[in-house]
Design goal:
Elements (H helix, E strand, L loop, with lengths): L2 H25 E4 L2 E4 L12 H37 L14 H6 L7 H7 L2
Antiparallel strand pairs: 1-2
This protein binds zinc ion.
Length: 122
């Protein structure tokens, strides 16, 4: 891939990374390179009343799963940025061939071809 294209994707990745980190900072703290959610389903005394708290737990679970999604996305982006540094950006992790630029334009953090990804995701 041309250097100018890679630079373009890198800029996109860095921009999205910044955004994600901003979002995560609102709901999680970074601990040892891992994001820990700040949200807690417990009350101030540390009690956990299932009946009263059911709604809050549901909300907690929804929000936590959003945090997880953000975290996974951030890992993808960080991985892609490492690949740019290592000069392996745009290479499919499954089959080792170049990923088409239309896919990278849609998702600069893509690690695989669409078909490779759906074929072997566990
Ligand atoms: Zn592939």
């Amino acid at each position: 891939m041309e250097r100018s294209r890679i630079t373009h994707f890198k800029e996109q990745l860095l921009k999205e990374k910044e955004q994600l980190e901003g979002d995560l900072n609102e709901s999680a703290t970074k601990d040892d390179g891992h994001w820990e959610t700040k949200r807690q389903p417990f009350d101030e005394a540390g009690r956990f009343d299932e009946e009263e708290r059911a709604d809050e737990v549901e909300e907690y679970e929804n929000e936590t799963s959003i945090d997880r999604q953000l975290e996974t996305r951030l890992e993808d982006i960080t991985g892609a940025l490492h690949k740019i540094d290592a000069d392996t950006y745009g290479i499919c992790e499954r089959c080792g061939k170049a990923i088409d630029e239309t896919r990278l334009t849609a998702n600069p953090a893509a690690h695989t071809h669409v078909h490779c990804n759906t074929a072997s995701r566990t």
